[in-house]
Amino acid sequence: MIDVSVGKNPEAKLVLANPEIIHVEGDQREEEGVFHTRISRLGAAPGVRDVRAQNVKGERMRCAAEGLLARAFCHEIDHLNGILFIQHLSMLKGDLIKRRIRKLRKTGEW
């Protein structure tokens, strides 16, 4: 499920099954993930990302997205493929975030 309205518009939620990226253009470097770390995403903006999927009724659909929605597609499809956002970071930045997570886990905040 993708909701780029952050809960402000329940009808804006997209529920997609078996999403597949068909075409990408452009790239974008923005903050992402729980630690709001800047990562690059090819095809996230200013170009277009085309996605093919099934809706909740099982009907095949295709949609194009730019900006935040394109980025959300990338992020969620990464989750489905077992990829975490820290895998898009340099080894140094990834290690820093892992250390922060370990620290938060020790204090019970994670």
If you had to describe this structure to a student in words, what would you say it looks like?
Strands 1-4-5 form a 3-stranded antiparallel β-sheet. Strands 2-3 form a two-stranded antiparallel sheet. The protein has helices at 67-80, 91-106; strands at 17-24, 27-32, 37-42, 49-54, 60-65. The chain starts with 16 loop residues before the first strand and ends with a helix. With 110 residues, it is an alpha+beta fold. The chain is globular, with a radius of gyration of 16 Å.
Helix fraction bin: 25-40%
User: Which stretches are low in confidence, meaning pLDDT under 50 for 5 or more residues running?
Assistant: none
The end-to-end distance, rounded to whole angstroms, is 23 Å
Q: Kindly state the mean pLDDT as a whole number?
A: 85
Shape: globular
Strand order of the largest sheet: 1-4-5
- Given helix and strand content, the structural type is alpha+beta
How many distinct helices? 2
Order of helices and strands: EEEEEHH
Query: Mind summarizing the main beta sheet?
Result: 3 strands, antiparallel
Please compute the radius of gyration using only Cα atoms: 16 Å
Total strand count, please? 5
Beta-strand portion reads 25-35%
